[in-house]
Amino acid sequence: MNWRQFLTPVKSVDADAAKAYLADKKVEDVTILDVRQPKEYESGHIPGAVLAPLPGLTDHLDKIDKNKPVMVYCAVGGRSRVAAQLLSGQGFKNILNLSGGFKAWTSDTAFLGEEKGLALFDGVTSVEQALTVAYSLEAGLKDFYETMAGKVDNDPAKQLFQKLSQIEIKHQERILKQYAETTGKAVSHETFESQALPGVLEGGLTTEEYANLLMPSYDTVSEIIELAMSIEAQALDLYLRASEKAVNDAGRKALVQIANEEKTHLRLLGELMEETLEGK
């Protein structure tokens, strides 16, 4: 038995410090490790977190990069402290324990099980296919925002839905550019849209599924922003989970790049929320 794992001090950070630490990092720079049970993970988790329940943590060690920082969390901080000490005893050098655990995390969250949405990427064996699926997800959300803009009577809400739709159009253009840069082949919006997945938004859920899970209200700008943040957090989570399942490095890198863009979208939405709340 390696007694060092029970004696090594572990650095702990609170939720605010953890959020600040992650803010300027790319998604691939840090491993976020969730050591709770699958049902806990399913009910809510930090976007992009890798599920490795504490009882079977040693079975996941070969999947965790020792050269990257690891931020580990559980429900309130007890299990994660044990997990952090175990990782330290296994040669991990840069480990942070989230004190207060997920219950203290007040930032963006994802939900559902670790396999949810991954079926969309089944059979994806090339970067071209990965980007085609991603484009389709962006198109679904763009159409959703456009539909909502036509339904609401509140002018600020209508304008916000239109603005969110324009953001998704820009992201689609970015994916087309990434496709061209990666493959050396130009492709049109029409070609990608002909392969669209009907009714599926970013994050891998349908409009109806999001409505049933989030029970969104569209009466105020802040509620619309909250809905958008929930969808973007789920999208970030899905792209990162899909990148772990990618069958080649090119596909993985393409999905990680899109995940980083989703993280930027989340940051911008957070800033918009702050401006909205300050203006009340």
TrEMBL record:
List GO molecular-function terms, semicolon-separated.
metal ion binding; oxidoreductase activity; transferase activity
Domain Rhodanese residue range list: 26-110
Give the signal peptide as a residue range, or say none if absent: none
Q: Which Pfam families match?
A: Rhodanese, Rubrerythrin
InterPro entries listed in its UniProt record: Ferritin-like, Ferritin-like_SF, GlpE_sulfurtransferase, Rhodanese-like_dom, Rhodanese-like_dom_sf, Rr_diiron-bd_dom
Stored CDD domains: Ferritin_like_AB (cd01045), RHOD (cd00158)
What are the record keywords, sorted?
Transferase
Which SMART domains does the record cross-reference, listed alphabetically? RHOD
Q: Does the keyword Transferase apply?
A: yes
Entry's SUPFAM superfamilies? Ferritin-like, Rhodanese/Cell cycle control phosphatase
Cross-referenced PANTHER family: FAD-DEPENDENT OXIDOREDUCTASE, PYRIDINE NUCLEOTIDE-DISULPHIDE OXIDOREDUCTASE
Identification of the protein by name: Sulfurtransferase
Organism of provenance: Desulfosarcina ovata subsp. sediminis
Q: What is the taxonomic lineage of the source species?
A: Bacteria, Pseudomonadati, Thermodesulfobacteriota, Desulfobacteria, Desulfobacterales
